[in-house]
Amino acid sequence: MAGSRLEKLGTIFSRVNGLIKSGAMKIEDRPIWYDVYKAFPPESEPHYAKPAKSYKIPNIFYSEDIFRAEFHKKARNQLPPINLREPRKKQNATDIAIEMNIADQSISVEKVIEILNKNKVLPIYNTSLNKISPINNNDSTCKINANEINTPTTEVSSPSN
To answer: How confident is the prediction along the chain (161 residues), in pLDDT tens digits per residue?
Structure first.
């Protein structure tokens, strides 16, 4: 059959009607019921609706997620930006705090921040002091020539094992 290959879309009458209109089926080859259905269509169009499956969505919050949210809320002004170019082996303060929480579930966020400050893992990095001033378009120092910009190129090599 030409047209939709999905049997649940459209009624059999609409599919046969489409085949006749497109020339894929001759009018002489139409099914016996076609003329009766065309002369006496049903009051409401037959509709196939597959019942939707109900899925129970599991809770996917882990204790580490809740701890991370609390840690970021309380140590917001002390967290430095994460350099994504550094290798993953060099951990940031958040990773260390979560590992401490996994090792001892009873430790509080304040205690973790205190330990990290004591060990100088969590430097005092005040984000409110590092605000960037808006650019003044009339300032002559803001004019940059694209040819003067030196963009360093780095080669990416595959790790040798």
So the answer is: 455 455 556 788 888 999 999 999 999 999 999 999 999 988 887 776 777 788 888 888 888 888 999 998 988 888 877 777 877 666 778 888 888 888 888 889 999 988 888 888 776 655 555 544 444 444 444 444 444 444 444 444 455 54
